[in-house]
Amino acid sequence: MSTFLKLLFRNRLAAMGAVVLGAILLLVLVTPILPLHDPDITATADRFKRPFTEGHLLGTDHLGRDLLSRLLHGTRLSLAIGVAAALIAATIGSAIGIVAGYFGGRTDNIIMRGVDMLMAFPYILLALAIVAALGPGLMNALIAVAAVNVPFFARNIRGITVGLAGHEFIDAARLAGMGHTRIILTELLPNVLPVIVIAMSTTVGWMILETAGLSFLGLGSQPPQADLGSMLGEARSAMISHPHTSIVPGVMIFLIVMSINLLGDGVRDALDPRLRSGALSRPRATTLVERQGDIPAATDDLLAIQELETQFHVGNRIYRAVGGVSLAVKSGECLGVIGESGSGKSVTALSVMGLVASPPGVITGGAVRFQGEDLIGAPYETLRRKRGDRVAYIFQDPLSTLHPLYRIGQQLAEAIQSHHKIGSAEARSRAIRLLKDVRIPNAEARVDNFPHEMSGGMRQRVGIAMALANEPDVIIADEPTTALDVTVQAQILSLLDDLRRDRGLAIIFITHDFGVVAQLCDRVAVMYAGRIVEEGPTKAVLDAPAHPYTKRLIACVPELGGGRRELAAIPGLPPVVDDLPPGCAFAPRCDKAQDNCRAAEVVLLGNEPRAVRCLYPEEAI
Amino acid sequence: MRGAMMGGYILKRLISAVPVLLGITIIVFLIMSLIPGDPATAILGSYATPENVEKLNRDLGLDKPMVQRYFIWLGNMLTGDFGRSFSLNRPVLDEIVERFSATLILAGTAFVLCSVLGVLAGVVSAARQYGLADKAITFIVLIGISVPSFFLGMMMILLFAVNLRWLPVSGMYAIYGGGDLPDLLNHLIMPALALAAVATGVIARLARSAMLEVLRQDYIRTARAKGVPERRVIMGHALRAAMVSIIPVLGIQAGFVLSGAVYIEIVFQWPGVGRMLVEAILKRDLLLVQGGVVFVAACYVMFNIAVDVAQSLLDPRIKT
Question: In what residue span(s) does the ABC transmembrane type-1 domain sit (chain A) (predicted)?
Fold first, then answer.
């Protein structure tokens, strides 16, 4: 509760709403003891006095009545009526909802049908019909507003009750011989009460506005009694000549509604855990770059990742997801990057084309060079022209990475048309050809499918076809087979391998599966806690792993498609990258670790192409 | 193939509307039976002539049991007989149709305005999250959803009609001359904007959060990885996906716009069905109220079916 209040008041707007609303409530509560004029005493000689005249702080209305007094009394009435309507609607609506949800079956069906029908009305029609039948008047307006809001509570509370009614404690109460009434009152009600209160707090402002509206129309409070709505309604005829009589009650309604809105937003935000974690922020078009230190010089590789550092800044914590990684590929070469979940391999891959979500991602150092040109910090348009055209990605889980509302043909065509000016017929025929290239049967029909109409393996092929659309030089495949079953996985791998040999493209293949690496990759780099701990030709690394981590990793992956369960075989957990130890990150889990492993940073050493980051390697290299 | 399926879906939705429409007539009938005292006098008003009271009793069969009375009333409505308004001395249906067209012009314009402006504001706000535009829009939206539409309308009249003299104070057409489209538009601007304000704010808020939700999805990253220009990522990929959660709210907001039209029609003296209803209530012309409520609610149900159909056209995952 106290954290909730703290969160609420950290929100400055919500706090402002609370202060304004509190002030209004206080004023309204002390109104009877304030030295005010009688709100209903008319003095035609004092008609339409302007605000700040002697004795009338806010002036007078068309009958010479003191506006300040009428305003406070009117506010009092409006708030009371609004709150009363909310209470009545909440009580009746919740009762209906609980009964429907608790008894279920036919009772539920009939009640909810009725509720649905009430909700089929625009609210004011229902309110007007009720007022028409009962006749204009404040009490009747209150009844109308309450009645109109009953369905809202009934539906919400029914939903909660249905969820609760399935729980064991209700069954237990029933078995203990408790009657329905008692179960509802002692078991259900206490559990739904918080929801009722929250629903009420979000609708009370609305109900104040609705009753004011009915009064404004002349259907609510009748003269001489006045709430804010009828004050505004009466002032309307003199609006042009004496605007202050309209502005005074209007601004009050505005202040009440706005402060309730602000407070309601604050409550909602404080209750929403996603907002607390900042997860609702929007990723920018490219990753934010705040590079410190020197930029490494160009090499003759096709794609070179050089001393790349990528961090996540969440609040005042810094997660070093990638801590100085260097990797390079040449044409026709396949490089495997392997590591556990959270080792930084995907972030490394996404950093290449600035696709790390930012916020919270920030690239803080190093370079990524494509044919010698540095892409980090390059203008957006430069990066965009290369994305998908020269460097393409294949992502894991194509159900979430393909757009659910576009046909796959459209998505493929778009990949081409983003880089080449071609007509839609031409793009479509190229899309069909691409689908054939990735061996999708019946491509002419499949091109008009939506992603949800395809199987997982088919979707992954579409993902590959999309990456191939512009015949790129480099493909970065981020666990493209993890979501697939083993036979489909083998097909996809051989497809990628063929493409590499036929088209001479370079592949960076990210996986946590050594079986896949063995099948496809020329070289492999092993990542741990955001760094490369070992690299070398695939065969050399697999046959004679030098880093204890690599060795353990290989030892517990006996075959293709081993999945993620091997992680349990290494004692302990990977370190959290916001609090890395000063020395070797694997030391806490390593049985060979010595004091000097933990003392200072261990460097990546070896003779090209082999290298290892270990003081006591398993094999000399 | 899809077209045939669509036709079947529309037919299915239309059939499913029948019980809802019947429910509406039952609810209105039940509400009207709440009228205290002699219904014929209450419906016709206390100044009704005895002949009129007798005729109404005969027409509505008020001496008969309730269930029978309901079916007589329903049967009459189905044949287009909504009764006769005593205060206007003309058939209720004629009056409703005439007034409803004025409401449609006002509410329809406001609905288009709030949909377009709201979605645009939400998209800009989300695309520039925490930027200046986002903060400005959030602030304006907060004010927009907090000002009662009737007060906003009055203030607009004061500023734009009385002080600046840019626009006419009220009405649908100028009294002398006018009557053409430019005249109508001139009279429409203020009430349509005032009516759209709250809904625009609500839609903008929703569109913003829907866009933020969508922009974090993997398929947006895919679009960017393909090299799709950012403008297209936002206005195409992201907005299209966000519309799936925006459209149902547009349907709900249409109901609020229609409701708000009652206030706006009063403030701007717009000759619509809302003003007709309020005047009818004050004159106790209950047949007019009854007919008007049933008619408008039925139109709203039809509109919601159109929203559902639009939704299923947008999202292929919805089973049609």
Answer: 75-264
- A412: closest CA of chain B, how far (Å): 9
Cβ–Cβ gap A122/B36 under 8 Å: no
Does the pLDDT value for residue A567 go beyond 50?
Answer: no
Nearest residue of chain B to residue A120 (CA atoms) = B301
Calculate how close chain A gets to B301, using CA atoms only, in Å.
6
Which residues of chain B lie closer than 8 angstroms to A280, CB-CB? Answer: 209, 212-213, 216
| Rounded-to-integer distance, Cα A125 and Cα A116, Å | 15
Best of A121, A406, A434 to disrupt the B interface (most B CBs within 10 Å) is A121
Half-sphere exposure of A28 (CA within 13 A, CB side): 19
Does this chain's domain A2-30+70-276 share its CATH topology with A303-553? no
Name chain B contacts of A386, Cβ cutoff 8 Å. Answer: 227
Could you tell me the pTM of the whole model? Answer: 0.85
Q: Which overall architecture, per CATH, does domain A303-553 show?
A: 3-Layer(aba) Sandwich (3.40)
Residue A455 half-sphere exposure, CB side, CA atoms within 13 Å?
A: 7
pLDDT over threshold 50, residue B164: yes
A41-50: Cβ within 8 A, 24+ apart: A41/A65, A48/A238, A48/A241, A48/A242, A48/A245, A50/A244
Residues in contact with A478: Cβ distance below 8 Å, sequence separation at least 6, in sequence order: A346, A349, A350, A393, A394, A395, A396, A510
Domains of chain A, by residue range, sit at 2-30+70-276, 303-553
Q: State residue B3's pLDDT score.
A: 64
pLDDT tens digits for range A319-334 = 888 988 999 999 889 9
User: Would you call A254 and B216 a contact, using CB atoms and an 8 Å cutoff?
Assistant: no
pLDDT at B72 over 60: yes
Q: What CATH class has A2-30+70-276? A: mainly alpha
Per CB-CB distance under 8 Å, the chain B contacts of A121 are 24, 27, 293, 297, 300
Query: What is the Cα–Cα distance from A356 to A286, expressed in whole angstroms?
Result: 7
**What are the pLDDT digits (tens) for A427-465?**
999 999 999 988 888 999 999 999 999 988 889 889 989
- B32-70, pLDDT tens digit by residue? 877 766 666 666 666 667 777 777 776 666 667 788 888
pLDDT of residue A565: 47
- Give the one of A122, A132, A247 whose C-beta lies nearest to B281's C-beta: A132
Buried b (16+ CB within 10 A) or exposed e, B174-202: eeeeeeeeebeebbbbbbbbbbbbbbbbb
Chain B residues with CB inside 8 Å of A212's CB?
148
Backbone angles phi and psi of A370, in degrees to 5: -110, 120
By Cβ distance, the residue of A131, A386, A395 closest to B218 is A395
Q: Do B215 and A283 touch (CB under 8 A)?
A: yes
- Residue A9 pLDDT > 70: no
Beta bridge partners of A314: A317
Of B146, B225, B317, Cβ closest to residue A393: B225
Is ipTM > 0.90 here? no
Degrees, nearest 5: CA angle A80-A83-A87 = 135
Of B31, B148, B233, the CB nearest to A253: B148
**DSSP conformation letters of B269-311:** T--SHHHHHHHHHHTT-HHHHHHHHHHHHHHHHHHHHHHHHHH
Contacts of A290 (CB under 8 A, 6+ apart): A362, A363, A364
Q: For A205-247, how does the pLDDT look when each residue is reduced to its tens digit (9 = 90+)?
A: 888 988 999 999 989 888 888 889 999 988 888 888 888 888 9
Is A417 in the B-facing interface, judged by CB distances under 8 Å? Answer: no
pLDDT band at A10 (very low <50, low <70, confident <90, very high): low
Q: Is A12 in CB contact (< 8 Å) with chain B?
A: no
Distance of alpha carbon A302 from alpha carbon A556, whole angstroms = 34
